[in-house]
Design a protein that fits this description.
about 725 residues, alpha+beta, Immunoglobulin-like, 5 domains, 6-stranded mixed sheet, 13 helices, flat
């Protein structure tokens, strides 16, 4: 049988807390106490180690079913009576069962024991108190407790220790450090980590995480293991990379320049099960890096073909493997290359040191020619810009190279002419095409019913919003500019915009507010009267019928062949009808109860989520979460008018109470598959907002690539044979 070990998976050893009350309250009935029926238990403890316990449970009735649960002692002893303990345990078990779409009865069927039980619990915390809790349950009476509670307390042993000490000799060469780690016992396994002292002190500060040295070292180990696992390395490779034996020389390159660092090293025991245990105190030492080592690196920067909002920019480093930073920004005409470089490092240096952003290698080509994605896009016309490049590897490694240029003037925003056209008009939406005579002019487009257009109020709202956003950006970055804000939140150039959430048979007007990029004020308002009239809905409104909710655990890949996808989830099935006279059918599933929403609101909510549905097999199969409300939607396109009609809807909330026999799903899918293979349609939960929504697609888009680099390299790691990595013991009990 599966074993219960209710311990929280936390960084520090804190006890489990419950939502259930330990004592009855006026609005909560007193739990029914267990009814002794003569069933008793003899619990015999076997070997108790620092991380495990062996035990034997012998019931007085070998045919009786019972639960055996491991619980931390502090929580158990908070209960004044066993009946409250049992009530809370069963309440927690039922809550866990519901997350799997199971009743308590279904859930406990896999967890109860019968007869003599010889077993063990592992991954326990050292020097910690636990209880083995055993009580009988009656499967014929919904697994209610039917015996007195047996509680056996035990304490895990102290974690094993190693009689080993360490010395760390650190040699610094600029921002490269070399460490000679020497253990007093060459057979001892050890782990080494170096980190900026500021971070070391922060995590141990009472005002932050308040970790001990041991806790923090284990935290660093855990983060490294998670990082390696995320990169796809197996556990044995991870162990070999992180743990060492004997005297070794390790090296770290590209550390943060002129920074205080703290070294940490400690001995570990890795048992035959793969459990890693800290077995010594932490030996520390400190050092300070110097300037980043100068790199033999130069740059050639070319800026050509400058337009009002684009320029052909190319940076060619002399060494294509060397890391460097480059940036384009507005130039005030005064700051030197060195001043700009220092500002960049002051603002972004921490992220650059981690290799997360703004570190590049090789030629950076934004000329729009062969091998180049496009010409570099700029925020504003008639503006001074700089292009700067400098070597960076934990610190500045070269002199900066900078070129300046000036974008061409453009007509004033007030002189920009816009055109707005409507297409793909439906009862609830339309597609808007916006063209601008000046590609650099920022603007805000919109549509509404003519009676809702209030130019003065809308202008005031836009200008106030721009000022507010700029103030927020400059509070974080004093160098943030107005054009940067406009570039983040406003349109420029030609766009195709999807507008939805409108009423049928309604005249729609369009409007565009042109923004002056130097003042943030609205420079021009251009309106488009009678842009379009939404159409009359088609005559076909499909009916949505809820078929049933089924357990993904019970399906287990037998129906759809995706056991990992269905595990712990519900499968909600809907059928559609009433679409005679339609040429096509579309469906979706949205989170929450949307039964009282209007058709325009539902159309808007479903934008981007509608999927075509076969009218010969009008079924949808959705993966859903237990105890969460959903609404299935459907609309049909009228064969005569080509217009969508009303939106049919039906809700469900998968629960253990309405879960249906999995055989029904098997039979249904088998029937459908006889003609055509069925497949999942995965739901997306979204929030429905009010009013008309706009979603835009620019004619031309591109994304910058972000490059990452490794920070630390270890030389000749020792080999440790192990197959499983389970960080635990000192700082973290496990929830199983």
């Amino acid at each position: 049988m599966k074993r219960f070990n209710w311990l929280m998976m936390l960084l520090t050893a804190v006890v489990l807390s419950f939502a259930a009350c330990k004592e009855p309250t006026p609005d909560q009935p007193e739990p029914v106490p267990p009814q002794p029926e003569g069933l008793t238990f003899e619990v015999e403890l076997g070997e108790v180690t620092y991380s495990s316990v062996d035990y034997t449970v012998t019931p007085s009735d070998l045919e009786a079913e019972y639960l055996c649960i491991l619980y931390d002692a502090e929580t158990v002893e908070e209960f004044t009576q066993d009946k409250y303990l049992v009530a809370t345990l069963l309440q927690e078990l039922e809550a866990e069962a519901r997350t799997e779409g199971m009743t308590l009865v279904e859930f406990l069927a896999d967890y109860t024991d019968k007869g003599v039980l010889e077993s063990s619990y592992t991954n326990l915390a050292p020097e910690s108190d636990y209880y083995l809790i055993v009580f009988g349950v009656d499967p014929a009476n919904n697994y209610e407790a039917c015996s007195e509670v047996s509680k056996t307390k035990f304490t895990t042993a102290a974690a094993p220790t190693l009689d080993v000490t360490f010395t760390i000799e650190t040699t610094v060469d600029g921002n490269t450090a070399e460490y000679v780690v020497t253990p007093s016992d060459n057979e001892a396994i050890w782990y080494f980590y170096t980190i900026p002292t500021d971070s070391y002190e922060y995590y141990q500060s009472p005002d932050a995480y308040n970790m001990s040295e041991e806790q923090f070292l284990l935290y660093c180990l855990e983060m490294q293991i998670d990082g390696y696992r995320g990169a796809g390395y197996d556990d044995n490779t991870i162990l070999n990379a992180l743990f060492h034996k004997g005297t070794l020389t390790l090296q770290a390159k590209d550390l943060s320049a002129n920074t205080d660092y703290t070294n940490m090293v400690a001995g570990f025991i890795i048992d035959e099960t793969g459990v890693i245990t800290l077995a010594t105190g932490v030996t520390t030492s400190t050092y300070t890096t110097g300037d980043a080592k100068a790199a033999d690196l130069t740059f050639e920067i070319s800026v050509t073909d400058v337009d009002i909002d684009r320029a052909a920019i190319k940076i060619t480093p002399s060494d294509e493997t060397a890391p460097f930073c480059w940036m384009v920004g507005e130039w005030d005409g005064v700051k030197t290359a060195e001043e700009i470089m220092n500002e960049i490092v002051a603002m972004y240096g921490a992220m650059m040191n981690g290799g997360y952003v703004m570190i590049y290698r090789g030629i950076q080509d934004y000329t729009g020619g062969p091998g180049s994605p496009y010409k570099y896009k700029l925020d504003a016309p008639d503006t001074d810009y700089y292009v700067i490049a400098f070597g960076y590897a934990g610190g500045i490694t070269t002199e900066p190279v900078m070129e300046t240029f000036h974008t061409l003037p453009a007509p004033d925003a007030s002189e920009t002419e816009f055109n707005m056209t409507a297409s793909a008009v439906t009862p609830y939406s339309l597609t808007i095409g916006v063209t601008s005579s000046v590609a650099s002019t920022y603007y805000s487009p919109g549509v509404c019913a003519p009676g809702e257009f209030d130019e003065e109020a809308m202008v005031a709202e836009i200008e106030a919003g721009i000022a507010e956003i700029l103030a927020m950006q400059q509070a974080q970055d004093p160098n943030a500019t107005l054009v940067q804000v406009l570039g983040m939140y406003f349109y420029k150039g030609n766009y195709t915009i999807e507008a939805s959430g409108m009423q049928p048979e309604t005249t729609i007007m369009g409007y565009i507010f042109a923004i002056d990029h130097k003042t943030g004020k609205v420079a021009k308002v251009q309106t488009f009267e009678n842009l379009a009239t939404t159409t009359k809905p088609g005559d076909v409104t499909p009916t949505v019928e809820f078929i049933g909710n089924y357990s993904g655990n019970e399906e287990d890949g037998a129906v759809f062949g995706q056991p990992d996808a269905t595990k712990g989830r519900a499968i909600s099935v809907f059928k559609y009808s009433g679409f005679d006279g339609a040429r096509s059918l579309f469906t979706t599933l949205l989170g929450d109860n949307l039964m009282n929403y209007t058709d325009p609101e539902l159309w808007k909510a479903g934008t981007g989520y509608w999927e075509s549905c076969s009218m010969s097999q009008p079924y949808s199969f959705y993966l859903t979460d237990w105890d969460y409300e959903y609404t299935a939607l459907a609309y049909a396109v009228d064969a005569t008018t080509g217009q969508p009609g009303g939106i049919g809807r039906e809700k469900t909330m998968p629960t253990v109470e309405n879960k249906q026999d999995i055989q029904e799903l098997i039979d249904l899918v088998a029937e459908l598959n006889a003609a055509e293979q069925s497949s999942f349609s995965l739901p997306q939960s979204i929030v429905v907002s009010e009013g008309i929504s706009l979603s835009a697609v620019k004619v031309e888009t591109a994304e910058d690539a972000v490059e990452f680099k490794a920070e630390t390299k270890a030389v000749a790691p020792a080999t440790i044979e192990a197959n499983v990595v389970k960080v635990g013991g000192y700082i973290r009990p496990f929830y199983m």
